[in-house]
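Recall that a protein's primary structure is simply its ordered list of amino acids. Everything else, from secondary elements to tertiary packing, is in principle encoded there. The following example makes that idea concrete.
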Amino acid sequence: MYKIQTLNAISDVIHTQLNDQYAISKEETAPDAILVRSAAMHDMTFGPELLAIGRAGAGVNNIPIDRCSKEGIVVFNTPGANANAVAELVIAGLLMSGRNIAGGIAWAQTLKGKGAEVGKLVEKGKSQFVGPEMRGKTLGVIGLGAIGALVANAASRGLGMNVMGYDPFISVESAWSLSTSVHRAGSVDEVIAQGDYLTFHIPLNDQTRGSINAEMIGKMKDGAGILNFSRGELADTAAVKDALASGKLSSYVTDFPSDDIIGVEKVVTIPHLGASTPESEENCARMAAGEIRDYLEFGSIHNSVNFPELQLNQPEAARVLVLHENIPNMISSISAVAAQEGINIENLVNKSRKDNAVTVMDMASLPSQAALAALEKIPGIIRIRAFG
């Protein structure tokens, strides 16, 4: 039986993927896998039995990825599972960035108790919240993954906007899903220079941290608006506030409030509601549980953030999965030891991703424990798993 620990409240939909072979509990102390949403894991100690972590969501900033890789723990996320929920909120944010809807709502609350005067006060005061329509404006979408593509299509088809998108790493699936009316820009600067509004859908990493900065804002149209529904740390908030104060930016809408931007004029802070829908939570939980199941039961790797994609069916007889460093001569070293130990490999697959790699050997019967121990001694081997 596999033991699964849940670090957050995870939708019961996981039971559609994890049958009675799985014992699922938040109190589990020696899990084979962990299902997590937003719980911080950087200070956790992982036992040697932990094989995988499934993040019910896209961002993995709460998981120590480098340490997991060194310990042979495969980390999965669920890209696209919450895409529709986030995209809908981005469209709401886009409307709020053009028209001061949030400010108008807050002002209307101050009229409570004015009695019969409310109607007249509304008509007198509403002019301070006038803003432009979206139709005919240009939206720049930076990052055309699952969320960015949905936003681009909705803005183009539903709002009548001119949409420009840029993503040097766009997947075939995302490219096919884009409306033909979405113009693919040749560079990020082209999008920045032409957008009346810019929306960012890129991961947070060392290259993107603080990329919404004074230099980038300086290349934008005067009076443009920015939407940040990816990660708060993408923005240099001091530069954003300076641009808002000078009028260079007309608005900044983000799903990631921080103390230095809450209450700033022309800033709309939404309390990280992007994936906060029951549909999204169920989609993420279902996908994460399925990824964990496939890896635990037969070694298939789908949507891992630290090991390569490896689509496998159940082994016909026996299988040995080797997680190892992506270094020269590793396959020949594995094959040599396998031959020395009398392991007859019927099928071998090797995939790599940056510093990490996976080699899968299918065979008629499982090797002895001594043979597996000999494989583990090869320099660069991280973990070995046997199935069958």
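The chain is about 30% helix and 20% strand. Residues 83-269 form a domain with the Rossmann fold fold (CATH 3.40.50.720).
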